[in-house]
Amino acid sequence: MTHRICFDGVDNRWNTALPLGNGKFGAMVFFEERTLHIALNHYDCYYPILPRYARQSEKSAAKTYEELRAQVDRARGEPGYERSHYTDTLNPAPPDSRPSYRTTSYPMAGEILLPLGPEMKPDDYSLALNIEEAKVVFVARGGDQEVGCTIWIAQRLDGLFVQLSQSEPGLWGDAGLVIPSERGLGGYSVSQGLETDTHWLRSSFQPESERDLSHVITVETALTVTRDCLVASVSTESAVAQTRLLRSMEHELEAEHAEAWKAFWRSTVELPDKFLETLWHLHMYLIGCASGLGSAYPEQACGLNGLWDIRRPSLWGSMWYWDVNIQQAFWPVFSSNHLELAKLFCEGYLKYGQDAERFARDVYGADGWALDYPHALYNCIQPWCAQFLWQYYSYSGDIEFLMDTAYPVFQKQIRFFKQLARPDENGILHIDPDISPEQGPVSRDSVITIASIKQLLRYAAQAAEALSRPACESEEYRRLLDALPEYARTADGSRLKDSALAPDDLFLRHPSVLMPIFPAEEVSRHSPEEVLDVMRNTLKYVSSHTETGMFGFGWVACAAAKLGEGTAALRILYEEGLDYILHSNGLGYEESERFINYCLVTKPPLYPPAMTEPSGGIVMAVNTMLLQADEYIEVFPAVPDGYDGLWEPQAEYRHLDWHLQGRYPKWEDCRFTGLLAPGGFEVSAERKAGEISWIRVTASRQEKLCLLLPAHLSPLGNQMVYTKVMEPGETVSFGMPGTAQSGASPSVQERQAAFTHRRVYLGEDRHTEFHKAVDACTCAFRLGNAHQYPITPYVFDFGLAEDERNYDSTYPKQHFRTGKSLLFFGAPKRVGLEAYTGDRGYGFASLEGLAAQDRSAPDDMRRDFIEGSADGEFWIELPRGKYNLLVVSGDEEGESVTHIGLPHLSGRMPGEVMRAGRYQCRTIPFVHERDGAFRLGLSTEAGFRWKLNALFLNKEYTFC
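Predicted structure:
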């Protein structure tokens, strides 16, 4: 099966643009107001702004470790210290001070504009990303006219191609190259021009903190235009010359592009949940597009935003963000069988080695590789990243990499740890002071730090043995491991807490306490029951007490899958993440029409780009459901079984549970091919009717295979661990494979969120705008971690009032929730040809010239309407106050124009010509200044009729 994201018959915008990339050069494509936009980005032109690349940078001296310790010791004497935040201890500010927010504006590579010509009048159009092909395709048709284009990025030479077609000359307009925004670009000098057939745009700047005035970097973007093709390139050298070279190599590069992306799909999944299946392929594609492969700045890799930062200003800017951000983006590259991307992470990480050793000397006066570089006291950072070095060896078997690269890093980090750790009277080694990133006080022995150091020591011991190092080395690592403290627990001992000094009920911005489960993988579903009890309790707490955002949901879902809780993992993926962060292009953002991240609530208006962490979290969670390897390889260890062992009732009374509970049925049938297990085993498997029907394993090197076989596939007729020393290229197979799925995924896919009931889309069509408008008016919005509920006292459905209607598909049962209590709003009021009366409180001012029509489609709300050709008014009696009004107008069978007026406010919103089957959805905020009838004016143009299908009235507050 192939997968796609499609905007069918509707515009999309920069925040739902479709992504392309070759690892370091990328584009985001969208079609808006008859113009195709292609926003460009290139890491080699984007990253040089960072202070790291200044020749003479102003750097402030870091506090020494002793200074930090003294500061912490003083603060710990203050009452209520356990409720402090570490920033208040290390960087205290006056209590009445206000934060100063700094936004970022990285270099912009420009945006290609390709308009439709004035003669092209499309009746229909579509823009689609064909994921497996890594191409965006646009088609528009009108009568006998047709235009189209295919957009792709070459795998080498960094060229973007737009291959044009048109049924007759002049249907495409003239292409251009622009910088789409000016805000925040004061530090850039921008010029542009035209040379024969090539547009060029140049942007010059200096790295941040640069003191060498002669160090100026210039980014050049070029667009070469021919009759049937546009070619664009971005470079710090001559992009003009580059595009002309690219044009001469179009067919060669296209063949290479096709071959490269065909080879990329070494692993695939088939799931009964097609929404998630599409997301898996999309986000694996995104990792490949934005990995950083081939960039001149491997130490930045995919950064925080990948190649998707196309509007300015934003909040963070993209770079190698330590802590969870960069790690999560690369989590699935091992199990998804992309060791070339895993090696890329390792190479980027190793670029910081000298900096980490310098940090150890300057801040600590110590030898080795500082565990907390570059953020003092974040002692989990470096051993966490070092996990990737061992995993690369474990999956690849590259013994030279282990000997020359990974093991020396382990040794340096352990050397530093031995100087940092402070033994108590029992010889237990403590990390004090220590920080759990983003939360809690400056503490000691945070769970994330201890778990990361434990895993570092385990890997070092295994590495020493694999390399036949002197036995004393592995013995020392195990002695150090045994000397580490137990994980901090709550007062009742039932679960882990963030750190020794943190309060039991700490709200988690990071699910850091899950590190022992994932990604350190110290605990699995096969651990002793007493350990699992604590870890399940920890997981249950974390799943409902973690900030909604970009990385938390993926981390928690991976941990749930690791403990065998597949249904919970699926629920958490959706209900703690995807239901909020997804835009209809399938990418994850810190702000959507359903959600704004805690980090952005107090910030200025920004243009937040898509983030890279969700990609890793989504793919890794699915992989962990499908394949795990501890002492042996196990297929389908955590597929959803319909039972959620972590779910807790959300409503006060059981008869209301259904309203807030998502539906996650058992995965009876699923399949994966080409996932990779430690030891370099490529695994494929299939599950039919709830039973494993086929397993195939291919070895990449000589290695002992240990594989759990179910009884019906076992040669002995009972469940067993099958063992065999495999040779390179050797394959073993059990059972018979079924037929892989064929065809394409649906163009537009929809899911309804469990808590808010808002619809979440992959792609959009002519109905999406209506559903989104209704949801925005009637469903909860997540502000940080709190739900805000609209108050909708009136929903009017106009037309033939006699029929019974089912509104479930258009207007889900609306609720208001506080704690576990639920209140429900009533059904829409059916309004026919009814005149206003003071007793009723609503109706038309006059019925003259009005008619009711019913088209029987597309749904029970939009199918019928009231219409008129003369000016009309609909009145609603309201107390004075502040309101929002959603007006829906259109006709499934004919064209219409509906102008909306607010006569008593002297306001008017002109309508557009709506083609048959199209619906205008206008949201109007207004202040009703006097008690009494609010008058909604309706008018049209000559030759048309206005239509009124539905009104939704929201109340913000009354008696203002």
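Summary: The radius of gyration is 30 Å.
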